Amino acid sequence: MAYLRRAYKDEQSEEIVSYEGFNDQRIPVEFKDDGYIPKPHYSDENYKNVQLLYLKNGDQSHLSSGLEWVYSDRVYRWDREKAEKANEIALKETSYPSVRYMTAFIREFYDNKYECLAVAGGVTHSSGYEYFVFGIKANQ
After folding, report:
1. % helix, strand, coil for the chain, step of 5
2. pTM of whole model > 0.70?
3. What is the pLDDT of residue 24?
């Protein structure tokens, strides 16, 4: 995956918070496991470049700890039946596109062998469809 650089303006402190690997944008990053992830939309200029949308506990060390980045559409290409089953199970737990949904989807797809520590998202330039990129790491 291409190298990414990210920063956003914290609404409370007015300071710019930078995230290693992501483009400078103004979308707040979700830190809580019970939070919601905004759906990228083609009309939002912020999503011309992929944006960091979730970072577990706000722990920036996750970004430099060797995460594997997996595109959501590729998961379906690898094993559509398994991805659809993971989607079904995740939707029983919560709604899309919440943090709990994304983490449950990854947990189910990878048979509990990987944990989702970050989620990035953007829109496909040619079609305008949203995509997500999961930052995953093998469970110890």
Report:
1. 30, 30, 40
2. yes
3. 52
